[in-house]
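In this section we walk through a basic example: taking a raw amino acid sequence and producing a predicted 3D structure, encoded as C-alpha cells. The instruction is simple. Fold the sequence below.
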Amino acid sequence: MNTLLIDLSGWIGAFFLLIAYGLVSRKKVAGDAFSYQLMNAIGSILLIFNSFYYRAYPSVAVNCFWISIAFITMFQHRQKAKKTSQ
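The resulting C-alpha cell sequence is shown next.
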C-alpha cells in the first residue's frame, strides 16, 4: 500500500477533527450539530485507517469510540428531525 495515501489520510483526518473542535469551541456550530458529528466521523475514519496501518492500536480504539459517538449522535439528530417534520 502506498504510505503517502496512508499518511495523507492521517493528516486529513486530524485536520477534520481539529476544525470540528475549533468550530464548536468558537460556538460556530453546536456540539450536537449534524455537521460537527459528520466532521468527527470523517476524521475518525481516516485516522482509524492510518493508525491501523501503523499498528497504533490504542489510537484505533479511541477513534472507534469517537466514531461510534458521532454515528449515534447523527442517528439521534436524524430521528429528532423526522419527529419534528411530522
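Looking at the output, two observations stand out. Helices lie at 3-25, 34-53, 57-85. Residues 57-85 form the longest helix (29 residues). In the next section we compare this with other chains.
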